[in-house]
Amino acid sequence: MGTACRRTSKNCKLLAADEAPWPPTSPICPGDGLDREWTALFPLESWGRNIISSCGERFRLMGVNWYGASDEKHVVGGLDVQNPDVICASVRSLGFTVVRLPFSNEMLRSSVSGGIDFTKNPNLLGLSALEVFDEVVRALGRNRVAVVINNHTTFGKFCAQPGKDSLWFDSDGWLSEQVWLDDWVMIARRYAKCPHVVGFDLRNEIRPRGLSLPYFERGISSEQPTGKLNWARAAATAADKILHVNPKALLVVERIVWPQEGLASYVSNPGPLLPRFQRNLVLGVHMYAWSGPGRFIPKWAVPRAVHCLLGSLGIIAQQNFGDFTSDQLDAVCREHWGDILEANVCPVWISEFGADLGSHEEMMWLRRFVAILAKFDVDWAYWPLNVGPKPGTGSQSGIGAGDEAYGMLGSDWKPKPSGDERLELLAKIGLLPVQAPTSETNGALRTECTREFKTFCQHRHARVGSCIAMP
User: Most exposed of 160, 281, 304, 311 (fewest Cβ within 10 Å)?
Assistant: First the structure.
């Protein structure tokens, strides 16, 4: 009989394949302090190329990634410096509307392994890693920041070169596809009563593992799609299960990053995702100066000695996005995801991009890329919020040692007094710093629904009330 591992420690309990990996899960309480006018915006819904609020207005995902719960210590970064409310207040003050919050499947079964200063966070003492995650989700809600939960890795480690975290399941270990699906059902049910948890990003950056090559099956047949490595099948299965317990959640389906192709096959209609999930689907795309179109592995992820050989075979992109001119970059963005937006088919979320402030080449690329994001008016999330040492860095990990060069906060996990050019660039695509709300500004957030919107709401059998303008 097959087994699935519920815990990843040496003393883990092995479960029979027909035994439920999770006990019945009750939704957690979202906590006190939620702004009811703000939460009235939720749930969100995909409508053509846009994501709209419950008031029928566009809700722009202007986000930032806050990693750590997917890494070796199993908790978000910064808790060794500040408490979650201080960090979440920084996120809100900078103007971000959403946080993409990664987790690993290992984290769900783990205790905390460092990364918390309990003198600053006494309420976190004795909690499991998942319970700490709960408190971070609550703190984001108290600070008017929405959450998209992202299954980033299987194991608690920084996502780098292809390996055990490349696929949504571990072909050699405890995380079968069924366990992955059960984990998602538990997560979706756990946060079902947290209105600000608006979506679930099914899996980060799927790529080959050895000779196991994932693919996205184009089109749809009358029969149930098959294929163990068929990401279209797995994503649709996960979507069905999540929506069964959390029916109004957004579902972010990322494209396979190697080979990296345009999104046309992901939005074939009829197809594996559309029209079936047209009110929930958001497509995720990641782009960096060091990545490139076609078949690629980031150059930093392979030994320098084999760069030339792999480049000639098309395994590493011979030209990275950072090498493109503005016109070339515009053309590849249009081909890969811009045409989808202009055809009003489906929302696209550029859920990872970033640059090293100390790198002239990366900052030049970021300036070009932000102009393209503005041109297509696309939703986005910068990578990352984090500052300080990257988790698991060093020669044995395969990750370059040192501090997180892409982070934009100060070392105290608060906005830098001197500012940051990257934040100035993000202002060109909608980021607007906000002040603490007052009685006067609270009133300014309300707008009257239009007659057209009321008709729209009645058509969708939605609640009609006062709208809240998005910041």
Answer: 304
H or E element: which one contains 179?
helix 177-190
At CA 62, angle to CA 257 and CA 159, rounded to 5? 35
Which H helix or E strand runs over 309?
Answer: helix 307-312
User: Could you tell me which residues come within 8 angstroms of residue 455 by beta carbon, excluding any fewer than 6 positions away?
Assistant: none
Q: Specify whether the CB–CB gap between 324 and 332 falls below 8 A.
A: yes
DSSP 419-452: --HHHHHHGGGT----PPP-HHHHHHTEEPPPHH
The helix/strand/coil state of 45 is strand
* pTM listed for this prediction: 0.88
Residues facing 284 on adjacent strands:
254, 349
Helix 360-376 and helix 326-333, axial crossing angle in degrees, nearest 10: 50
On the 0-12 / 13-18 / 19+ scale of CB atoms within 10 A, 2 is exposed
Are the C-beta atoms of residues 33 and 142 closer than 8 Å to each other?
Answer: yes
Contact (CB, 8 A) for 107 and 156: yes
Work out the widest C-alpha separation in the chain, in whole angstroms. Answer: 65
CA distances from 194 to 72, 108, 170, 199 (A): 27, 18, 30, 11
